[in-house]
Amino acid sequence: VALSAEVLAELRGIVGSGNVHDADGDLAVYARDATPLFHHRPEAVVFPADTAQVAAILRLATARQIPVVPRGAGSNLAAATVPLRGGIVLVLTRLNRILEVCPEELLARVQPGVANATLGEAVAAVGLLYAPDPGSRVVSTVGGNVATCAGGLRGLKYGVTRNYVLGLEAVLPTGEVIRTGGRLWKDVAGYDLTRLLTGSEGTLAVITEVTVALLPAPASGNTGVAYFASLADAGRAVAAVIGGGLVPATLEFLDRQCIGAVEAYAGLGLRTDAGALLMFGDDGEPDAVERSMARMGAACDEAGALEVTTAKEVAQAEALLAARRCALPALSRLGSVTMLEDASVPRPRIAEMVERIDRIAEKHQVLIPTFGHAGDGNLHPTVVLPSADDADVVARAGHAIGDMFAAAMELDGTITGEHGVGAAKLPYLSARLGEDQLALLRRIKSAFDPAGILNPGKLGS
Amino acid sequence: VTLQQPELRLSVFDPELLSRCISCGFCLPSCPTYKLTGDEASSPRGRITLMRALQDGSLAPDDATLREQSSFCLGCRACEPVCPAGVQYGQLLEQWRVHQWRGRRRPLRARALTMLAAQRWLVWLMGVARRSARTPNSARQGGAPSGAGRDGARSGAGRGGTPTGAGPGGGPYLMLGCFERGLFPAVSRAARRLLPGLSAPAGQGCCGALHAHNGDLAGGERLARRLGERLPGTIVTTSGGCAAHLAGVLGMERVSELSAYLVDQGTAVAGEVRVAGRRARVTLQDSCHLRNGLGVSAQPRQLLRRVADYVELPGAGTCCGAAGTYALLRPADSRRVLDPKLDAIEAAGVDYVVAVNPGCLRQLQTGLRRRRSAVRAVHLAELLAGAELPASVSTPREG
Fold first, then answer.
1. Residues of A with Cβ-Cβ distance to B85 under 8 angstroms
2. N or C: which end of chain A has fewer CB within 10 A?
């Protein structure tokens, strides 16, 4: 159903005619994000320039019962930004200014359309660190990171997005502008709406400004690589590292298939005959980093590592981390459809979970390479399909994913560690939360969004 | 993949190339037009979504967004090196333009330009009118820049371009380039001073890059093959754009861009470019297709460091907006892309900005002149050979 000419005219009145797109081609482009197999065209794409315009659009949408899906760079992997019910895609890329970087208070204020890496560079220029570093950091926006509570490679030591959001400006679907939290580390006035909105996937309010906490940038860092015959051996090394009192900045693993794909892409000279690769690293004062690296190397040796190497220079360490970040797209060389999941399990159960994933892959006859964050138990089993056209293989992939979620929950894990529920994982949410909690989610949703216009068909719907 | 009839939708793109993209979006921040608009439709991923919609028929062949976005794209291929899935966007774009710009739909200016460039007699005439680009400078001995300036360069004799040190099958050859020999004949002359062993026969014709990028892929390939037959050995070119196109058709081993060739051959490049009694400060603007298509970016920098103080230009690897015919077809967008580049060049505090492609050279010269900037744009060959630098500054001395 196309929006009426009247609604389009009102939208154009709010943001200017060049900032409302409704041609077929423009709608086709916003029918998808980074998730395969989920497509639905919106009826208009609107590019607001400021908070007031966002508020006016939402008031209009609530009055006319038009779905609105907020979107940053569209790098979501759970179809959270796919406009399943049509309506308006609200693109926030024009809100792309870093408003303030304040070294005295260790914070920055940014608009939601700023890319994570752009913020990272800006604060690094004054010796500071914005810690959350999702694999998509060069493209994904801070607003999207907050809306999904994005994680990243540094989760174990530094936590995830929610640990760095001090305050938000957000527009309610009914048009009111609220400011939650602020510049304070301690502030318990009221329910913690900052945390509630963090990870709300655009279903409760549209985030228009974010105040984030910064840290002094660590003086140095290093990364090493250990190869193991099996993931179980790598798991023992991880247990020894954490059990030994270390909280490393990096603890990532790749299984055999992922090693091959990343090596084929990045050509770093990784050992493709190993059963598992563990990437470990730390940051801080140089002598502390050196001690930590030595202890982690020793833990890997004791767990039966085939080989342990430490990067000799910064560039080499960065290349290793960059290679890990591109594991997903590198896997795409194995097939044209990649369904990246992010089930998480308690850390000691990683090897067990990967074994189960391998069995599930065998059972359903699909390819599922797995990589992920060994430090926090967040796995990325990735179902790789030759093509989306084969309905049979797509169905088998769906069954495999269902089985993986069930396996993760049996091991006290969850269906999503950092990508979010979106549309792709909504069918599994009740198994994870239970009916009572799901009903509470719905009541929260309707308190924020009585007309049910914000990202319908997602969380709380 | 040639499209004769628009209704044969499925043949617009090579399906294998089109299926590579997994829509991760890692390309978005590298794209100059996405940077301008923040609009998915003008990003590489968005354009691939459009191509897929064209291919599967979910958008009409004459859809306005398809038309606009295929033309708004600079074709700089900055999205390729950052794509971990290895999508060959440049090839997809060429195939797309074959469809979009089929027949009379091709912009008039693009039609005129490619038609002219394919006329050997015209290219030849331009060469005569502007003094032959093939003329080596006999005032120079070897590759090292000497003290001779503009006048020295002009005193060159020895027409005819007899190859010296030619290999068995002839060559290596200097490709003269149709655009370059018309606008910048001094560039080829400078290249011949640097590499006197290159032969530069007449009647080379056009390499076809312009055609391939402007909706005539078949014509572009045909011209490249013909050039390959006329210059049947290693082809050295002073144009990054021609190098990438030729390498794509004839193979990487046949084609070498000047800076890569100089570095590969270990050619002695010495001397010093001086300005106002001191060593000149220079920066480089990459050629997009040279950098993104052929992976050549270290070599020109390496050479510049030998003769001047080199300053890295922030964003040197991003498009200057020349983009082949783009500056002619979409002048306003071209300037929007160029303006921040000019700001960066002026802020770099340099005497020269060096280009490795004639289109970039023209774009930078025009832009800097418009601003009455003190910075001069020159081609790498000219700077290295010390030839025909603007008369207001001194030229390189013997090293």
1. 329-330, 332-333
2. N
Q: Per-residue pLDDT tens for B210-225?
A: 899 988 999 999 999 9
* 3-state secondary structure string across chain A: CCCCHHHHHHHHHHHCHHHEECCHHHHHHCCCCCCCCCCCCCCEEECCCCHHHHHHHHHHHHHHCCCEEEECCCCCCCCCCCCCCCCEEEECCCCCCEEEEECCCCEEEECCCCEHHHHHHHHHCCCEECCCCCCCCCCCEHHHHHHHCCCCCCHHHHCCHHHHEEEEEEECCCCCEEEEECCCCCCCCCCCHHHHHCCCCCCCCEEEEEEEECEECCCEEEEEEEEECCHHHHHHHHHHHHHCCCCCCEEEEEEHHHHHHHHHHHCCCCCCCCCEEEEEEEEECHHHHHHHHHHHHHHHHHCCCCEEEECCCHHHHHHHHHHHHCHHHHHHHHCCEEEECECECCHHHHHHHHHHHHHHHHHHCCECCEEEECCCCEEEEEEEECCCCCHHHHHHHHHHHHHHHHHHHHCCCECECCCCCCCCCHHHHHHHHCHHHHHHHHHHHHHHCCCCCECCCCCCC
- From CA A430, how far away is CA A436, in angstroms rounded? 9
Q: Given phi > 0 = left and psi -120 to 50 = alpha, else beta, which region is A127? A: left
Would the CB atoms of B85 and A330 count as touching at under 8 Å? yes
Q: How far apart are CA A425 and CA A406, in angstroms?
A: 12
Lookup result for tokens 């794409």 = A45
User: Which chain A residues contact residue B87 at CB under 8 A?
Assistant: none
Q: Which residues, 6 or more positions from A23, have their beta carbon under 8 angstroms from its beta carbon?
A: B63, B64, B65
Rounded average pLDDT over A392-414: 96
CB contact at 8 A, B236 and B198: yes
Q: Is the predicted pLDDT of residue B128 greater than 70, yes or no?
A: no
d(CA B320, CA B32): 9
Cα–Cα distance measured from residue A272 to residue A276, given in angstroms and rounded to the nearest whole number: 9
Q: Chain B: nearest CA to A446, how far in angstroms?
A: 31
Max Cα–Cα distance, chain B, nearest Å = 66
- Closest approach of A169 to chain B, Cα-based (Å): 22
For A9-13, B95-99, B109-113, which range has the lowest pLDDT when averaged over its residues?
A: B109-113
Rounded to 5°, angle at Cα B227 from B221 and B232: 120
Distance CA A61, CA B168 (A): 75
- Is cis: bond before B185, omega within 30 of 0? no
Buried b (16+ CB within 10 A) or exposed e, B231-254: bebbbbbbbbbbbbbbbbbbeeeb
| pLDDT tops 90 at residue A30 | yes
The percent of residues in chain A predicted with pLDDT above 70, rounded, is 100
Which of A103-117, B7-21, B119-133 shows the lowest per-residue confidence on average (mean pLDDT)? B119-133
**What's chain A's length in residues?**
461
**pLDDT exceeds 50 at position B157:** no
SS3 B66: helix
Residue A93 has pLDDT above 60, yes or no: yes
Task: Give the residue numbers in A contacting B (CB under 8 Å), as ranges.
Answer: 21, 23-26, 28-34, 36, 47, 73-75, 91, 93-94, 96, 113, 115, 117, 136, 138-140, 265, 326, 328-330, 332-333, 336-338, 387
DSSP B163-212: -SS--TTS--EEE--HHHHHH-HHHHHHHHHH-TT-B--S-----SHHHH
User: What's the predicted TM-score (pTM) here?
Assistant: 0.89
Rounded CA-CA distance A419/A415 in Å is 10
